[in-house]
Amino acid sequence: MFQLDFMQNAFIAGIIISILCPFIGLFLVLRRYSTIGDTLSHSSFAGVAIGLVLGINPILSAFLFTTICAIVIEFLRGYYKKYAELVMSIVLTLSLGIAILLISSGKASTKVNSYLFGSILTVSSEDIKLIFIVGIISLLTLIFLYNKLLYITFDEEGAKTSNINVKLINYIFTILVGATISMSIRVMGLLVISSIMIVPVATAMQLKKGFKTTLISSIIFGMIDILLGLSLSYYIDSAPGGTIAITSVITLTIVIIINKFLNNK
């Protein structure tokens, strides 16, 4: 399996995604932003369709379009402070409309399945370079903003009074969410990207530890889910996105059962 170039590419991409997605996901869960993952994954769908129609790298077009949508979401949240989900619905509607319009034209429909469900066969060296660059930049940005993000997550009003530029950091964080989603579509597929951002976090939270331990545990569970899911998808010839999603839920179930058994002893 590992002697095959496409599997090597898939595993390299998978490792980068398994570190970044739970890192982002923990902040999303704690800030009650879980729905933004689904919204931006549909935005990346429109970005992919634009790339396929224009003949440019779909991951790059997805990144650019998702970034624009992330900025729009954060901008509109200022106008709908008490109705954040309304903003998500607006962006979701626009993105799906664009995606359906372009795909129904027939110019993008032939290649769209690999982006919807993920495909380890189509992860190219060019994709790996783009995923690596975006992944490293995103990870370094998260590390740099870690303390401020943590403060904003637990006490946004307190962060404002401490002269932290909350609005700017929220914009940057939302863009990072979009970047993470757009670079994950080759492996995970558009339909289940948000699962790898949220489910490993839900699994780690079962351990009931502090923030840093939960963060590290989320990344470990994310790696287990993605690497095991990729291996299984190779051997049973299935779409990696769905296989990884099922693997992550099974991991969560096992941890819940073990946790319950240990607590009842």
TrEMBL record:
GO cellular component assignments: ATP-binding cassette (ABC) transporter complex
Main location: membrane
InterPro entries listed in its UniProt record: ABC_BtuC-like, ABC_TroCD
Coiled-coil blocks: none
Keyword set, alphabetical order: Membrane, Transmembrane, Transmembrane helix, Transport
Membrane topology: Multi-pass membrane protein
Pfam families, per database record: ABC-3 (PF00950)
Transmembrane regions listed in the UniProt entry: 12-33, 45-73, 85-108, 128-147, 168-185, 214-236, 242-262
Keyword Ribonucleoprotein included in the entry's annotation: no
Localization per record: Cell membrane; Membrane
Family: Belongs to the ABC-3 integral membrane protein family.
PANTHER family named in the record: ABC-TRANSPORTER METAL-BINDING PROTEIN, METAL TRANSPORT SYSTEM MEMBRANE PROTEIN TM_0125-RELATED
Protein name: Metal ABC transporter permease
